[in-house]
Amino acid sequence: MEKVISKLKTLSKTDLSFENLGLILSEFNFNSVNYKHLLPPAPIDGDYSRNILLMQPLECVILLWPPKAESAIHHHEGFWGYVAVLEGECDNIEYTLKDGILKESKAMRGVKGGIIPEQNGIIHKLINPSGTQPTITANFYYPPLKDFKGMKIFNLKERKIGILNEKAQSASWTEPKEHFEKTEENAFELESKNATHKIHPVIPKPLSKQIENMVSAYYSDQAHEYDHFDLRHNSRNTYTEKINSLIADDLRTSNITCVPERKEFQVSNLLTLACGTGRRAVDIREDSGLNYQITGIDLSEEMCTLSRKRGISTMHSSWLDVDLAEKQFDVCTFLYAFGHISTKKERKLALLKINRHLKPGASFYLDVFNVDDKNEWGPNAVKTFEKNNLQEHGYEKGDVFYRKMGGRQLAFLHYFTKYEICSLLEECGFQVAEIKHVGYVTKSGQMLENEDEGALFIKSVKR
What we know:
The protein is an alpha+beta fold. It has helices at 2-9, 18-26, 208-221, 223-232, 234-253, 279-288, 301-309, 344-356, 378-387, 418-427; strands at residues 49-54, 59-65, 73-75, 80-87, 89-98, 101-111, 115-118, 123-127, 135-142, 152-155, 160-164, 180-184, 189-190, 197-199, 202-203, 269-273, 293-298, 313-316, 329-334, 358-368, 399-404, 410-414, 430-438, 447-448, 455-462. The protein has two domains: 2-192, Jelly Rolls, CATH 2.60.120.10; 210-462, Vaccinia Virus protein VP39 (Rossmann fold). The protein is built from ten helices and 25 strands. Helix 5 (234-253) packs across helix 6 (279-288). The protein is elongated and about 80 Å long.
């Protein structure tokens, strides 16, 4: 940290614009700065503890966040800054207040080495999302905060706003009553939550194995309620049932004719990747009227347990790590999950491995989210990618991190163009037999014609 502090001390007021400070901080590798001798004592009563390292020409402070610690929602009025994550993870949740309604507007997670911007005028809070590990951040603010006098903080549960005075030691409701200038009761209302999930970028993009662990934790966290959520969410249920029926109808009515010697072939085994609870694989088999063995693979041990209860031979593993020896299958499905693979390189490796484990002429069914679908996150994912310059943080266009509203676990998803997914399949030894646009939330389950509507359902055949 000494090099960072030395550099900051040389800055003049003309150097201190929001954009310029961001560029200066990006020159440092916050993955490897030496900070442990600068840590403040662990907090006793408050949500976090602080050690101020610099107050001129700007403020630099080290913060120690215990597990699940968070600041109060507070208003950045007249100052701005950046948060560098030195250890752990830090969530920045932003809000807007308009016409007396407070609503969550956007979010971002910084992981070790990441830098989170905090612009002037935002209403936000910082959170350590981990339930077990502390988070360490270096916060940089201009102009420096001599004290918290006049800062507004928001209490969601009691719908009140507090205005701190110069005695306050943190932006927190744990401050004693005498550290407030005043409080305003019934100061706002919360927006009704219509969305079930929220985009939540992570800076920088974690490594593939870390993302795999995130996805596993996300689904394990909701494994026992997953089917219930699926069935009660009308649009999602309609969509998944339509995909199921397309596969079941195709299995039931079509012979594999790509290889003449297998014209009368009957499906004897099916591989389902990201099988989840196994419900969809079993439903597809029942709808098809066929009797074949099902082998499932899933990242979540909890999902695997539920899948086994449905009689599916299920392995807990990522697809790239699982060892199936020389076993080959007549059919493979990869439903609602291919986009969880976090890089183009690994998606190609996954498809090549699927191809190796399919018999000649075997069918491969998958669905992916369409980056051009105007009714889904795809266009917003592209805007977020461009606005936040996410390519510099390891992202590919179409990458999205997200969380379920009210949850802290994040998951990853990649949105595809039609050309991107079809080209990838062709490169990996498949012939695209058909591709359909199927409505997801809007026009759920309907077969659509427009390129900017619906998820992409693809049947391909091993060449």
